[in-house]
Specification:
- This protein has 267 residues and is α+β, with helices and mostly antiparallel strands.
- It has a single domain, classed as Metallo-beta-lactamase, Chain A, CATH 3.60.15.10.
- It is built from seven helices and 19 strands.
- A seven-stranded mixed sheet has the order 3-4-5-6-7-8-9, covered by helices on one side. A six-stranded mixed sheet has the order 10-11-12-13-18-19, covered by helices on one side. Strands 1-2 form a two-stranded antiparallel ribbon.
- Helix 6 runs antiparallel to helix 7.
- The longest helix has 16 residues.
- The chain is globular, with a radius of gyration of 17 Å.
Amino acid sequence: MSDKPLCVACGTQYDAPRENCPICDDERQYIPPAGQRWTDLDTMRAGELTGRVEEQGEGIIGIGSEPKFAIGERALLVKASSGNFLWDCVAYLDDELIAKVNELGGLTGIAISHPHYYTTMVEWAHTFDVPIHLHEKDRQWIGRPDPAIKLWSGTTNQVAPDLTLINLGVHFAGGTVLHWPDGEQGEGALLSGDILQVIPDRRFVGFMYSYPNLIPERPAIVRRAAEILEPYRFKAIYGAWWDAIVRSDGHEVAQRSARRYLAHVQD
């Protein structure tokens, strides 16, 4: 049984029924005009949702659902030499999706960019018997505490010999990206969720405190994020949505975007 309550607006799963969703109450998200609504995985599985698994890049497999649910992000399975690693998470999980992930070789771990994508992370961790790596600065947003959740602190966390989590602090204090130096045939890939938001103009990425409510990120945070990323090399940036990908010049795109952002938010 997977009857723990799921927020329909953001997809967060909680350990017990509740009247409100703290993530939607926060100014970075919102309560829909129709009000707070709840569902659960059992109900979702009995409905029209199906899993979606598609290649997003060489060695990077997108995982999501059709139709989209809640915020609508897709997760990314990274086929690293150290083992398959799941970046970000989606709420939907059924037997067919489980079988497809196992056909790909299962998982060795999970990491999530920020609380909007925590969703059913504990269901995924239990299903594949792996840990979830979350930055400790976002611990207050965990809706379903569980021993599978491993909190880390500081700026970087090498979760595998070829995978490094980097805390940039954009969007959320624990906002994190994943660097895979072996991606893009050794030229490097950065998996960013919407900590660095891949936007329609692929020459740039965006930085926001709230995307739906159009609250800009603080300049000092963006400046620090650019400084932290500067030593890392990556050709591609993989955002949170299907095909939201910067395919080339990723490092310069990130640095150029920070410079442009800072020029626009200063007097």
